[in-house]
Amino acid sequence: MTRDDFSLRRPRLHGPAMRPWAWAMAAALGLTACGGGTLQFVDTSTLPVISPSVSCASLAGRSFSSSAIGLPTSGMTITSAEVIAAAPEAAGAGSVTHAVPEYCRILGSIHPVDAAAPPIKFQLNMPTHWNQKTIQVGGGGLNGSIPANLATIGASGSPISGAFPPDAPYPLSGGYGMFGGDSGHQEAGTTATWALNDEAWLNFGHASLKKTHDAAFAVIQALYGAKPRVSYFMGQSQGGREAMEVAQRYPEDYDGVVATSPLIGYTAHVVHKTLLATVQTGAGWIAPAKQAAIGAEVLRQCDSLDGLTDGVISNYLACAARFDPLKVPQPYAAIRCAGGADTGDTCVSDAQMATLNQMHAPTAFGFELANGWSQFPGYEVGRESQGGWLNTTPQPSRAAQPALGQPGATVSYGILKDPSFNLVDFSIPAFKDRLIASSALIDTTNTDLSRFFDRGGRLIIKAQGSDYSSNPHTVMRYYDKLVERFGQDMVDRHVRFYMLPNGDHGGAVQSLPERTAQPQYVDLITMSTDWVEKGQTPPDAPVLSAKQTVPPYTVSATRPMCRYPAYPRFIGGDAKQAASFRCTIE
After folding, report:
1. Which of 61, 398, 528, 568 is found 20 to 30 A from 582 (Cα to Cα)?
2. pTM of this prediction?
């Protein structure tokens, strides 16, 4: 059966931009979907492993001119370079430090053009026996430090959360060089004075990614007498946004990109968080004590939609539709307090239901942000009874800035350039020009991946259905627009987008409310490298596993992870086995 055989039976699934897929139909019927045609790959089977042509220590103190970097800088300096001895795997009580080979640890500083801007600090870990491939690692939060698993290769050694099983080897041990930077500032926490500087703000938005890449390549050239033959970028959260940035802005530099929990549409994301705080200054505030009742209601309506009542909401699109106030006027009517007033922790008032509706309804801007985006899609549901949800705690007030953490710092320092502004008074129309300018610099919503595709680039995206630190619906909307632009066949050749239902921002899945760990581990790193270097197209339904984090890494359950818009539906058998589920759509 061909793709055309399915063409008249494709349902609409997700909003007006939705384009359903023949492969998902095929998966539902137990067939194998095509990869969309033959695509060249980077054959590295004969690529020799090479060793440094100069000593690691000789790089210390060396300076490089600005001509080595493709964007404006004042050059760079290597601040330290030392050989780190090989170390075996070491298992602790609850975690593992992975084995690493001997490598050269290099720290450097990229100097700004504006003397008032902070430098970009970076780290490069290069194995003594190098396979001529590199992985650039994205940051997290508001950055401000070297990515943790470059600075110290610690427990599990994962460069990207949720994409690296505990028993997978650390890429450095496979011969990959690894590097990353602090995005151009050294300020940790939830203040962002650096963002008041235009060069630092631009660096955070995207420029530091290119500068760090070029700096690392120049150092590698000096150390080995050769530049990398294959280049990857991998990141989670803010690092996932950065991964999408490089595919959109600097596609010639990368062969493969992995983005998990990507914070694309970043301007609208932080604005939505701010607006949620403004409506919770009064009666609309949702106290943490009410989360259990709200979570139980979501579970009541959605748990069985995937064919299995197990505390995991797998049919994420059907569940989201039940709590979309544009489709269901009062999704939480079953737990409305009598009379609509706040009468206790087991119900929600009318004002609190309005806040819940604002969480799940789209936020219209009334004007276009970058790349034609004009609204922020509503959030998914699930995990309301746990931490990291969308309510603002403690309750915000006009007497003090709401505790919005990183989103608040981004709005105050980066977008408004006014840290004294009380975010309770924020409104979209009042800051239209600032929002448009920020969106052009920091939003990762450009669907023109033609240069990345022309290079033969491969992109793997993974989002979590119950992620409230980013928004999976934004990623869904981006993918829908990508398909509209290029067609499904072209997208299939270059992109895989997976959804992890009920997963949190880091990729963990737990049954609710018992909080029993569910299958969540999948090796996206190997999937990416095999696609780029061997032409092995990632499967439509890679198997997730729940396993111990220390040897012998015993697997307790497996489940398929489906390509969007499919979800894992229970078809009968042992609920702990992936074979008992089938990726399907409705």
Report:
1. 528
2. 0.92
